[in-house]
Amino acid sequence: AILRQDVPWFEKQTSGGLVHKLSENVDIIQNGIGTKFGDFVQNISGFLTGLIIAFAVGWKLSLVAFAMLPLVAIAFALFGFLMKILTLKEVAAYSRAGGIANEVLSAIRTVVAFGGEEKEYNRYSSELTTAQKQGVKKSMAVGG
């Protein structure tokens, strides 16, 4: 997908940010293929097993509870959408911070020569503070 981007997209990206995004996306994909898929299969299996047992034991009560399933599904979908937005904001802030660190460390001699250590430190700290705020918002949404 990166090879198909237009030139202006590359001009907007910093070299450090691009490297950080690539490594972050590889981790996300690896995590998604690994544990997340297994958890999904386990949860679906548990749900179907519970549904079968519930209908076998008390089909009338199960039918009433099953009628509430669309409301529960909508609530979970809204929660998932909120988590996606908050996670994307958090990852973007960490990506910017990682990009700054990568840029500064790759040109550390230039930064030191011009006395820009404090400025770069403040820039990096600002992005980390933004990422921390996004992480706190996300944890508040989860309830932790």
UniProtKB/TrEMBL annotation:
Domain ABC transmembrane type-1: 1-144
Parts of the chain that traverse the membrane: 40-59, 65-86
Membrane-protein topology: Multi-pass membrane protein
MF term (GO), any: ATP binding
Record's keyword annotation contains Transmembrane: yes
Organism superkingdom: Eukaryota
GO CC annotation: plasma membrane
Primary location: membrane
Subcellular location: Membrane
CDD domains listed in its UniProt record: ABC_6TM_Pgp_ABCB1_D1_like
Cited PROSITE patterns: ABC_TM1F
Keyword list, A-Z: Membrane, Transmembrane, Transmembrane helix
Signal peptide: none
Presence of the UniProt keyword Transmembrane helix in the record: yes
InterPro entries documented for this protein: ABC1_TM_dom, ABC1_TM_sf, Type_1_exporter
Listed name of the protein: ATP-dependent translocase ABCB1
The organism of origin for this protein: Clonorchis sinensis
